Amino acid sequence: MSSPDPTDFPRTASYEADPEQVSRVLLLYSGGLDTSVMLKWIQDHYGAEVVCLTVNLGQPGEDYEVIRGKAISLGAVDCHIVDAREQFAAEYLAPAIRANALYGGGYPLFTALGRPLIAKLAVEHARASGCDTIAHGCTGKGNDQVRIEATVATLAPELKVIAPVRSWQMGREEEIEYAREHGIPVKGGTEAAPYSIDDNLWGRSSEGRWIEDLDHEPEDDVFQLVTRPEEAPDEPERISLTFERGVPVALNDRPLGLVDLIEAVAEIGARHGVGIIDHIEDRIVGLKVRDIYEAPAAAIILPAHQELERLVCTIHQNQFKPQLDRQWAYLVYAGLWWEPLRDDLDAYMDRVSERVTGTIGLKLYKGQARVITRSSPNAVYDAALASFSQSGGLFSQTASPGFIELFSLQSAMAWRLRNQ
Ligand code: ARG
Fold it and tell me: Would you call 312 exposed, middle or buried from its count of C-beta atoms within 10 A (0-12, 13-18, 19+)?
């Protein structure tokens, strides 16, 4: 063979595997084209055994027995299927809700939250199956490689990583050809490349095709989860969400575990066209890109949580926490889930959340979820004090002018210095 060996490229990080030392690989396997080609390619190019791991984070429409069967038929020595939905909800989504987690003002971080868990499970299964290397299907242009490799490097310095898509120099056409040659079943055919999709319980993202043209209005076929608002029901729907300590525990007064609750809220929101986000995003690796997100559950639960938090917190807490929320979202987006600052921030979130208990009512209508009612035993609110119709009690209106004079004193002095 005269063509260069694609496993023989300069390695820039200490965790990148030396081909000589790769003998048993844990492959993060989705059953799609990239990772199916990879499953064969690793056996061919490294002469290594491959153990597959497929993680269920609540992505709809997967048949895990079919995925396992495909992996085994392509030569995997084993294929582990892990249902991590409960863990994902309890350890990743609940903290995200407490942190009102949105990156760049709009992205509810579902992929970013899933990656550290997927990579942690990869480490556990690699160790348990005697693997020396973890392989994943991320490209060299995205955030997901950062999240997965930072997790492996942090949790398992003894394990190495290979990311064949970064080095094998195959485009989609070549991958399909490789698949045909190696008896890998290919869904669809050689028609235009599909959208690049990632999804889980908390949302779904689409990238590629016309989405890369910033001037191109969303085409209808990208929306596979959320009804287009113009096609949503003509009647609004009211729902209530009850929170305990910052986490939703009941929908319409019916207690539900977090996974079931998120699924139920997503279904209602999707029906009403709620949660479409057309987002320009600053990736960690320098690129600015556009994503189309569908995140109906997040688009309902996050604003409800934030509303309840505003009600039970003081003006000072309400001024302060969004700064921490933003830092939390940035760390998670950037793949630094295991960074101690994230843990420190969570300690603050947990403390504030001790009082975030109550019920928020929302009205869903043609793409909107609007808060319409609130109640909480911890509300820092006194209807009698706030009312226009009464005076007296703790609040003396005659005290207001003295407050205003002192409160504005420095600003008034400074203004005069600059303007006289
Ligand atoms: N832009 C989002 C993020 O960085 C979504 C990425 C989706 N990943 C994917 N492999 N399609 O988290």
Answer: buried
Query: Which residue's alpha carbon is nearest to atom 2 within ligand 1?
Result: 111
Give backbone dihedrals phi and psi of 200, rounded to 5 degrees, phi first.
-160, -170
Q: Rounded to whole angstroms, how far apart are CA atoms 387 and 312?
A: 18
Q: Pick the atom of ligand 1 nearest to 139's CA.
A: 10
For the question of residue 34 being annotated catalytic, the response is yes
298: three-class secondary structure by DSSP: helix
Q: Where are the beta strands (DSSP E) in 216-294?
A: 237-244, 247-251, 254-255, 276-282, 288-294
> Can you tell me whether residue 162 is helix, strand or coil?
strand
How far apart CA 93 and CA 26 sit, in angstroms, is: 26
**pLDDT per residue of the chain (420 residues) written in tens, 0 to 9:** 457 888 988 899 999 999 999 999 999 999 999 999 999 999 999 999 999 999 999 999 999 999 999 999 999 999 999 999 999 999 999 999 999 999 999 999 999 999 999 999 999 999 999 999 999 999 999 999 999 999 999 999 999 999 999 999 899 999 999 999 999 998 766 567 789 999 999 999 999 999 999 999 999 999 999 999 999 999 999 999 999 999 999 999 999 999 999 999 999 999 999 999 999 999 999 999 999 999 999 999 999 999 999 999 999 999 999 999 999 999 999 999 999 999 999 999 999 999 999 999 999 999 999 999 999 999 999 988 888 766 667 788 899 999 999 999 999 999 999 999
Distance CA 178, CA 135 (A): 19
How many alpha carbons lie under 13 Å from residue 124 in its C-beta half-sphere?
Answer: 11
144: annotated active-site residue: yes
Is there a catalytic annotation at residue 115?
yes
- Give the atom of ligand 1 at the shortest distance from the alpha carbon of 110: 12
- Among protein residues, the one with the nearest Cα to ligand 1's atom 10 is 198
Give this prediction's pTM.
0.96
How far apart are the C-alpha atoms of 374 and 379, rounded to whole Å? 9
* Ligand 1 environment, Cβ below 6 A: 111-112, 142-144, 196, 198, 205, 207, 281, 291
Q: Active-site residue among 167, 196, 240, 375?
A: 196
Contact between residue 339 and residue 331 where contact means Cβ atoms under 8 Å apart? yes
